[in-house]
Amino acid sequence: MSQKLIDAMADLDEDLIVSEVKALVEKKVPTLEIISYLQEGMGIVGKRFEQKEYFLSELIMSAELFNTASALLGGIGGAASSKYGTFVMGTIYDDIHDIGKNIVTTVMSSNGFHVVDLGVDVPTAKYIEAIKEYKPKVIGISCLLTTAFDNVKECISSIEAAGLRDSVKILIGGGPVDEATCKYVKADHVCRNAQETVEYAKKYMGV
Fold this sequence. Notes:
Blueprint: H1 3-10, H2 14-26, H3 31-50, H4 56-72, E1 86-91, H5 99-110, E2 114-117, H6 124-134, E3 138-142, H7 149-161, E4 169-173, H8 179-185, E5 189-191, H9 194-204
Parallel strand pairs: 1-2, 1-3, 3-4, 4-5
């Protein structure tokens, strides 16, 4: 185990991350093992974020450092991304906000999920198509406009009508989204931040 790399990732020490990854590669440590150390460090970053030791800027920085490190391994960050299965994410139709969605998809990817990003202004049919094609256990719907709450409700209702609701857990998130919204649209959980999305996705995937 490389505690040094885990700690470097947790402390967001870019120089140490780079040097340690290079050292491990020279020692012929398996790529997926190196990725696992980075992911363990990311887990610590997530906990520090929850405890308010780190803030959004650190969370974004950690994902960028993860990508930098995986590039040193031949850009195979995605090779470990199937560790926890597939996560489908998009911003509901009539809403084109993408910052929150992009943070979630980046953090999910660097925490071992294969992420399918549907983009913004995503119609219901695209979600249904993605569920059929990728068979995810968890999907995320981002919504930053209260005027689009009904669209989220319609989307989830249509997923149910298509006979796909029992096979997937639906997470929702966004500035105005709360528990009342979750009940209204009939989602499974409302996530306040990217790290919470990671934790609940792992929970629903039985990790």
